[in-house]
């Protein structure tokens, strides 16, 4: 939809102010640190060039990330521009005044009609697959939420399940390794090596699993309901049993190929190498962040489920009409007069179906039918949010930005420690130290630095995931509107109306139509929602129908106003007929009086030269009765 400025606002608030404020604070902190690091380059160039280059790299990253966060946050805080055509239509708008709408729609006119007729809502698609059904069993009313929320819920449930399976598989794998190495030579060394490999594998798997989360408000997540399968679970279970056994067998073969002295050196070195790795600490960090993210997401989803009551009802009204009007007046009056008076905020209604053949119904006893489906302009509705939703959303937003900031600071710390290890390596090259000293001075601190860098990446990933989840619940905007659907069919009757004393001397003739029709009308009060984005396409997103409630007052008002318009127009036509009938009778009276007196010209009826021919044409009482019957004056016949 194009942005259409109007002085009359739609009263759609900016939902991203708090989120943008917190994001701007993080961006300002990162920007300040980045500028500080860049200012330190000049003094370091004369004393420590490698550290100056590190400051340039980290400072450039901080300035870039800080400006992006600060700019994006300020963009969210600033004015939220909404055009007059917002929000998006439910289906393709076929109204004459419709703008060039490009946003995707989830429905069409036939689907909307079936929703009102069958009292159902196709938005609530049945989940496919046993895992999706299990998720909807845990959250019974998850099916009545918009698709992005359902996709996020299923995605998080799959992440939790895979995480638990992976941890259980790790425990099983540790038991399998213990069983494989029991009673074998070098069991202690082999158990330590394989255990470190399994811990690193679990760490990498959980990190990639939770850090990888697509944008919940991407176009694919809005228009497609995701499907979750159990293939990943099967691979995890198979790998938990097969990989440890294969790894253990490979280690046993490697151990057998070593010389006795090499085995003794490796056995003595393992207690010294083990402190280098920090997989236990990183695993703890990953599990804690994953549980915190999942807990906040569960609270948000459960609170959101109860915000909109489940309803799929509509009001019905049917009757028969018989009016002295052309049937085309049914749909033109309904669309352009009655429903236009019901519009909101002086905005045109959304017309999703306008099909009728009344324009071609011009013959006697010709049948006609037509359909009209209209939505009154949706108005924004501020629904009451549970306290748990507000607090979880705000705390999750703050926590996500803190994790992102902490990850950036750890990245700075890790990069700075890398230079210390480089200088320590140069020192080791200059002096001859034994293995124990080299491990204590270089490898153990280097392991801690590697752990810091991995922790920074984990925190950045978890912060990004948590921010995206919370952003989804900031973005939803609710609307309320009325949908009206009418089907009408009937038969046309036609008569020719003449003006004048009789049909031979008529001054004009007119075709008069009347119709006998039956209609069936449906109406509902719909609650819908869409997800806004901060940018030029803020509300150009599909809209989801969530609740359909009966609206007897609205449908009675529409049909009542339409019948009042028919009666008013019918009375006007009858008044015109009565005036024309009285005019014809007055003409006949003047003609009879002129014939009785013999002075037609004096009465202003004919010219003097036509008097002779008209005097011979005297209308008798019997002929007058025939004229009255032919003109349709049943009251005088």
UniProtKB/TrEMBL annotation:
Reading the lineage from the top rank, the first entry is Bacteria
Q: Extract the ranges annotated as region (Disordered).
A: 574-637
Recite the UniProt keywords alphabetically: Membrane, Transmembrane, Transmembrane helix
- Here the segments flagged for biased composition (Basic and acidic residues) are 574-598, 621-637
Q: Where are the transmembrane segments?
A: 21-41, 53-75, 164-183, 189-211, 232-255, 275-301, 391-413, 442-462
The name under which this protein is listed is Uncharacterized protein
Q: What is the lineage of its organism?
A: Bacteria, Pseudomonadati, Pseudomonadota, Gammaproteobacteria, Pseudomonadales
